[in-house]
Write the structure tokens for this entry.
Amino acid sequence: MKRKLMLISPMLHQGGFERICVLTARLLKESFDVVIVVFSMEDIAFDISGLSVINLNLKAKAGRIGKMLNVVRRSLRLSFLQKKLGTDISYSFGMTANIANALSFGAKRKITACHSFGEINNVPYMKLVSSHSDKVLCCAKKMADLVQEKYGFANIAPLWNPCDGEAALKYSSAGADEDISFFREGDRVLVSMGREDDVKGFWHLLKIFKRVNEEAPDTRLAIIGEGDFTEYKSLAESLGIRERVLFAGLKKNPFPYLRESDIYVLTSLSEGLPNALVEALALSLPVVSANCLSGPAEILHEDFKAAEKETDVFFADYGVLSPPLSGKKDFLVTWKEEKGVRKIRLDQTQEKFAGAVLTLLQNKEMYEKYRKKAALRAEDFSTVRYVEELCSCMERL
């Protein structure tokens, strides 16, 4: 008889851990009796056909009292459902789901997953989740190390997010949501994926692209992700690059856009383990990434602890790492004159990032080396490896 596995997510809207929840259900449904439980079915962004999904219909509430009552309702409703279904293991994703799972009492074993620094830096939350979970999984080794150093919990373990490379390749050849002529006009395209959020550092990206475009006029930039990006569009206008930047919006299938691009760029101020970066590698895209806290160094270099210590541009095993970018949100544009030509003035870390991108664009041998290594590295984040490690973890509970 199959063991009964409950996967819990607040919603199935766009997001990294929501994607992992749905993918986990598909990967394990042959070996387990899997059900997904959500608090709301609004704005579903993933294909859930063929999957069992239960809606608790307990949406987020405003106000402190409303939130507290919601925690109680969710944990109780979850507990009764776990008992009714005879749940062997409940596995949750995201802070609100983790809290409800931790406080529930209907499953035989409980696993919670942390995917952000907002979680691991929240002391009351981490103490609650860890003390009421059989295992806490962190999506990066760096995050697991930091949790163990900070809290000394014994039930912490790393588990890399899975990347279905075969699916990415398959969908990259499928129809895009709209015409992608922007990517097919002979120019080289830099691409980045992420929602409109300060942590993604997109003001850095636009300024860096301006410098790249000054030196390599045959370049364009595409940003794929949810948001209206109004202030970023204004910045692009101020920089004089608006017609060379595509704000593509949210794409249910972003892979055709990645396939048509030339370099993946990541300017985040912090990450857990950036799924989009691994997806770019799966499509053989060379990568230039900020060496921010957790994630890029671990993905792009075998010895991530050594890579984290690098203070300059570092040509790592599987991509290029550039020094961390400033966390100060800055839309101010200043200029300088060089040999009678007006050019954008950047800070030192932005200049280094732009230089790393230009090196890849100008050095065909290096570009091809990283293009070939990209897909090889993505295999280390394969769904097969994820299933093996997750099943091993559940067997030991």
Remarks:
- The mean pLDDT is 94.
- DSSP finds 16 helices and 16 strands in the chain.
- The longest strand covers residues 3-9.
- Residues 64-85 form the longest helix (22 residues).
